[in-house]
Design a protein that fits this description.
This protein has 202 residues and is an all-beta fold. It contains no helices and 18 strands. The strands form five sheets. Strands 1, 3, 4, 6, 8, 10, 12 and 14 form an eight-stranded mixed beta sheet that branches. Strands 2-5-7 form a three-stranded parallel beta sheet, with no helix packed on it. Strands 9-11-13 form a three-stranded parallel beta sheet, with no helix packed on it. The termini are far apart.
């Protein structure tokens, strides 16, 4: 038997930490449903471990006090807008198990300065990290094949990007308004660069 967490009712004030349980009764928790922890303003630290495989749409969106995030090694998919607007989050490591990162998954995480995506990930959705204004350290896994349009738009502090070998095309507006972007290293098999690099240095 499996379970999906669909709603959390936390305290109205104060700071608190959450470790997602691996079981509820005799049910194994395998998913966090859409909007389950939406706008939990007091959530400070989040640990997801054990058998959880998916994080749903807006599951932790607008958790504006979230500063610490530990993602479990069984997670396969991070849904659209899952951590949208987690404006206090500074560091994210996408674990080896994750194959896809949804649209706007970490968009507007304005204090995020370090992002590591491990090698199992193959696709990054549109706007996935758009508006991460302080992002300076970016490591993209070698098996990524698709980087969505506007994925890193408005990442003002980003200075350089190395595109993984399996990516053959960059879509429009992917790096627009990356105002300090100095260079992009492209792979040998690259065929199409659709980004305009609007407001990037010449």
């Amino acid at each position: 038997n499996t379970a999906t967490i669909t709603e959390f009712r936390g305290p109205d004030d104060g700071s608190y930490d959450i470790t997602i349980p691996t079981t509820l009764g005799d049910h194994t928790v395998t998913a966090i449903g859409e909007k389950a922890f939406l706008s939990c303003k007091g959530l400070h630290s989040l640990t997801i471990k054990g058998p959880i495989e998916s994080i749903g749409y807006e599951a932790f969106a607008y958790c504006s006090s979230l500063t610490s995030l530990s993602l479990g090694e069984k997670i396969k998919t991070i849904g659209d807008s899952a951590f949208y607007g987690c404006s206090a989050l500074t560091e994210v490591t996408i674990p080896q198990s994750v194959t896809s990162i949804g649209k706007s998954a970490f968009a507007s995480c304005k204090k995020l300065d370090s992002l590591t995506i491990k090698d199992a990930t193959t696709s990054i959705g549109d706007y996935a990290f758009a508006g991460c204004e302080n992002l300076t350290t970016l490591s993209l896994g070698e098996n990524i094949t698709t980087i969505g349009g506007c994925a890193f738009r408005n990442c003002h502090a980003l200075t350089n990007v190395t595109i993984p070998e399996k990516v053959t095309a960059i879509k429009s507006e992917t790096f627009d308004y990356c105002k300090h972007l100095e260079y992009i290293i492209l792979p040998a098999g690259f065929t199409s660069f659709g980004a305009h690099l609007e407001e990037c240095p010449p």
